[in-house]
Write a structure and sequence with these properties.
Structural class: little secondary structure
Low-confidence stretches: none
Number of helices: 1
Mean pLDDT: 81
Number of strands: 4
Bound molecules: zinc ion
Shape: elongated
Strand content: 5-15%
Length: about 70
């Protein structure tokens, strides 16, 4: 079994982990409702994209149509 000859020092481990960068995804404001959304995606809040309504929200409180 191959084993590392020497263990890494704390500073070497820490300096490697210092390169971990947390970045937020690029968020843009929805021009329709003002909430944050991913660019080139339909707004998850209002369902608008390029000023057009693409997705309508489902009404949770209303039951399915009964005839
Ligand atoms: Zn929106």
């Amino acid at each position: 079994m191959p084993n590392p000859k020497k263990r890494h020092t704390h500073s070497r481990t820490r300096s490697r982990r210092g390169q971990w960068i947390l970045t937020l995804p690029n968020l843009s404001r929805c021009p329709q409702c003002g909430s944050y959304k991913l660019p080139h995606r339909i707004c998850p809040n209002c369902g608008f994209y390029k000023g057009e309504l693409w997705v309508t929200k489902k009404e949770k409180s209303q039951p399915e149509t009964e005839k």
